[in-house]
Design goal:
- The protein has 171 residues and is mostly beta strands.
- The protein has a domain of 116 residues: Sandwich (Immunoglobulin-like).
- The chain is 13% helix and 39% strand.
- The chain has 1 helix and 8 strands; from the N terminus they run αββββββββ.
- Strands 3, 4, 5, 7 and 8 form a 5-stranded antiparallel β-sheet that branches.
- Strand 3 and strand 4 form a beta hairpin.
Length: 171
Amino acid sequence: MTLIVKPIAVAIMITTLVLSEGELFAQQRCTISIDQAVALPLTTAEGNQVRVVINYDIKDQSLVGQRLNAIMGIYDRQNGTLIKLSSFPNGFILNNTNGTTQLATTLTDPKIQNISAIVTITNGDKTEKYTNDVRADLDLRTILPTTLPPLLENIQGPIQGASSADNEGYN
């Protein structure tokens, strides 16, 4: 039996191996997980703010005291396209081996509904990846408005046949 390997298949296999080794190296230096991910309506302008809080666990002690950065990519879950990239303007100094950090960005396009936020920690120049990627899926259609209509205007008073304890707070 003869095995014929096409150059494209070999290139894909080599690329996959290199990426896998890079991921392993990154995960050995630091791992991250999502603590919280939310999308909130802005109160002073149109749009939604996406916030992702990540936990980090630094395994490489030489990173403590170094300037690191974090990148958050916002992707459209419907078609997979990148909507926005965010990072810290000047990075941040890593003071501890364990902790949390928050990334936030604003989306102003009202057509954006379902997103994925993908976060990773890098070196300060954002040229070398230090961690695994973490992902949070958010549905912007479920965001509550910043103000609610007056709900008490429609409440008539005590319900007939109900005890006063059932209507506490409605009178």
